[in-house]
Write a structure and sequence with these properties.
The chain is mostly helical. The chain is about 60% helix and about 0% strand.
Length: about 180
C-alpha cells in the first residue's frame, strides 16, 4: 500500500508518528465504533495500490466493507459521515505524488516503445528508419526516467511512511495543509 502498511493478517500498522500523526486518521481511530477496521476500509478503498483497484469503482466500497466487516456484520462504517469524508480526502491528497505518477507513465511508454521496436522486421530502409526513431525515443524517455528517479531520491519522495519515519514529501504536504487551515 502507498500510505499505510498492512501486517501479515491484514490490519493497519498504527504508529504514533505514522498514521496516527495525521488528525483525520486519528479521529477515525479514536471514534467509538470505527477504529482500525474503519481506517483499513478507507485505505483499501482509496489507496492506489489497493488489492481492490481492479474492481469497478462504484463497487469497491461494497466489496471492501464486506471483506473487512463480514457479510452479516450489523456494525459497519458510514462512508458518508463527515469524519470519513475528511479522512478519504486527506488520504487522496497525501498519496498523490506527481513525480511518481510521471515515473510510472514514463516507464510504461518505454515498455511499449521497446515492444513496438522489437516487433518490427528490419528488412527494408523504411522499417529501419522506424527502428531508429523508436530507439531515439526510448533513449530520450530513459534519460527522463533517470532524471525522475534522481528528483525522487533528492526530494526524499520514496513513497509511504517507512519504519515510522515520515518522509519529506508527506511532512511538506502536512505543513502546507496546516498553513492553509490556519489561514481559513
Amino acid at each position: 500500500m502507498y500510505l499505510v502498511e498492512l501486517n501479515k493478517i491484514g490490519k493497519v500498522v498504527i504508529s504514533d508518528d505514522g498514521v496516527a500523526a495525521i488528525p483525520e486518521f486519528r479521529d477515525i481511530l479514536e471514534t467509538k465504533g470505527y477504529g482500525e477496521p474503519a481506517l483499513r476500509v478507507i485505505a483499501l478503498i482509496t489507496d492506489y495500490y489497493s488489492l481492490y483497484r481492479h474492481r469497478p469503482r462504484k463497487d469497491v466500497s461494497t466489496f471492501v466493507i464486506r471483506d473487512v466487516y463480514g457479510r452479516d456484520a450489523k456494525k459497519t462504517i458510514d462512508l458518508t459521515s463527515e469524519k470519513c469524508k475528511a479522512a478519504i480526502k486527506k488520504y487522496e491528497f497525501l498519496q498523490f505524488d506527481p513525480y511518481r505518477e510521471e515515473l510510472i507513465s514514463t516507464n510504461k511508454i518505454i515498455q511499449i516503445s521497446v515492444r513496438l521496436k522489437n516487433s518490427l522486421d528490419v528488412t527494408d530502409e523504411l522499417v529501419l528508419q522506424q527502428v531508429l526513431t523508436y530507439t531515439s525515443r526510448i533513449e530520450r524517455f530513459e534519460k527522463r526516467l533517470e532524471n525522475l528517479k534522481k528528483i525522487i531520491k533528492d526530494d526524499g519522495s520514496s513513497g509511504p511512511v517507512k519504519d515510522a519515519i515520515p518522509l519529506f514529501r508527506l511532512e511538506q504536504k502536512l505543513l502546507e495543509q496546516g498553513v492553509r487551515d490556519e489561514n481559513n
